[in-house]
Structures are given as C-alpha cells and as structure tokens.
Design a protein that fits this description.
The protein has about 270 residues and is α/β, with parallel strands linked by helices. About 55% of the residues lie in helices and about 10% in strands.
C-alpha cells in the first residue's frame, strides 16, 4: 500500500510538472507572437474585479482577496512596463463601493494608503519615470489616505514615461458630471451667459475637463472575473474601446491571460464607426 501511495504521489508530481512546462512554453510562444505583431494599446484600461469571490473560493477572509489583488496589480504593472504600454488606468474602487461594509472599506482604504506609499519609493516607478495620478472623487477619503495619494502624485509629477492612473472613488457618471461642472465654472468666470454656453458647447469641451484629459482614450479595456458589463468605467472615453472579458478572478489573473488578451486585441479590426 505504501509503495502504491508513493507511486501515485510521483505520478501526480510528474503531471503537475508537465502541465507547468506546457503552460510555460505556451506563455513564451504568446509573448513572442505579441511582441512580433507590435500593435499594443496606447491606453489600457483594467477593471480589477473578483477579489472577494477569489477569497471565498479559496476559503479565505475577503480582506485577503483585496490584499492578493493589490499584489496582482504590481505584477501587471511590471508586465505593462516590459511591453512598453504607454498608459494604463486601473479601476481599484468605485463610488458604489463606498456603500460596502465599513470594516471592508476601511481595509481597502488602508491598502490604498500602503500601496501609494510603496509606489512613491518603488524603484520601478522612478527608474521608468512613471507618472502616477489618482483619479476620482476623494473628498471623503481619510486625511492619511489623501496625503499618501498626493505625495505619490507629487513625487512623479515631473516624469515623462508611462502614465498610470489609479481610479479610486471613481464612477463614469460622476466623472462626466465633474467635467461639465468644471467647464461651466470656467465659462462663468469668463463672463459667459448660460445661453451662450449652451449654444457653443461641444463634446471636445467636455472631454478637455475629464480626469485624464491629457491622455488618449482607452483603446483596450480588460475586465476580469467573468462579469460581462462595463459598470460605468470611463464612459465618455470608451466609445470606441475594444473590450475583453476574462473568466478569471483578478488575483488569479496570470501573465498568460494578459498575453492572450493582447493577442486578441491585435487580431481585431478597429473601424471607429466607419
């Protein structure tokens, strides 16, 4: 019996090693194909969905799911840097998430503060001259979280490398509302009447007041967890975005999944309504 168990364990180890080798080989092939094709998103959007369900499936506390999700964001940042993707927006916390359990929300905000402080001294950020910006509505954030985000933005504000937007307290409708309000305030300060503004306003006027107005619209948006919906992510800017819905929870998102998504993007014919 003991020898049978030992043989079964050995067979299991061999199967595991074989699967690992096959996956590694497949990943390397994908990386070559993506690199040789050359077409990459100018602005990649990432909807980080599935942290809590990942934790539940693994028998862990939900807070651990968010912690693993934060670690995964670091990995994906590295993948973007390696490929030379110019701009990325990661949606970490929505305005709707503000209604979650207070303990869970406090944990998420604590993670946000920790990650902001770590990024502000991360050699990858400074070595690659990554400019980081937190976008969204942050008025209700604790002072310590705001201070960490502000410090991160200020420490990278002069960089001219990759642009990384961290969407926290973010909602697509809220962004459009903020943009309209900002535009109207500017017109009022210039002495324009409401009638004059209404007659002259254009989509470009609104677009110029969005949170990341100085960056191209996202051309590719990936959502994890298998949910097939937009949830309001970059509503204004995503009119011509290509979407990819990945059937894996965010903490389990692998490099092979990332490369598979990019290969899919490279095979699409973007017509922009023509």
């Amino acid at each position: 019996m003991a020898s049978l168990k030992s043989a079964l364990r050995t067979a299991q180890h061999v199967r595991t090693a074989t699967r690992g080798a096959l996956l590694w080989g497949y990943e390397q092939r994908l990386a070559r194909e993506v690199g040789e094709h050359g077409k990459l998103p100018r602005h990649l959007g990432l909807i980080l969905d599935g942290n809590r369900r990942f934790a539940k499936a693994a028998g862990l506390q939900r807070e651990m799911g968010h912690s693993f999700g934060a670690d995964k964001a670091h990995e994906v940042l590295q993948w973007c840097l390696e490929l030379g993707i110019p701009s990325a927006t990661i949606w970490v916390l929505s305005t709707d998430n503000g209604g979650r359990d207070p303990e869970e929300l406090a944990h998420i905000l604590g993670l946000l503060e920790r990650e902001a402080r770590q990024l502000s001294v991360d050699p990858r950020i400074h070595g690659n001259r990554v400019r980081v910006r937190a976008i969204g509505q942050h008025d209700n954030f604790p002072p310590n979280v705001l201070a960490a985000l502000n410090n991160l933005e200020e420490s990278t504000a002069h960089y001219d490398g990759m642009r990384l937007n961290i969407a926290v307290g973010y909602g697509g409708r809220e962004e459009i509302t903020d943009a309209v309000q900002s535009y109207l305030r500017g017109q009022a300060a210039a002495g324009k009447s409401l009638t004059e503004v209404a007659q002259a306003i254009t989509p470009d006027d609104i677009g110029a007041h969005l949170y990341a107005a100085d960056q191209p619209d996202p051309d590719f948006i990936i959502r994890t967890s298998g949910e097939i919906r937009l949830s309001g992510f970059m509503l204004w800017q995503s009119v011509y975005s290509e979407y990819y819905f990945c059937d894996v929870y965010w903490p389990g998102f692998r490099r092979v999944d990332f490369l598979r998504a990019l290969r899919d993007f490279q095979g699409r014919d973007r017509r922009f309504g023509k």
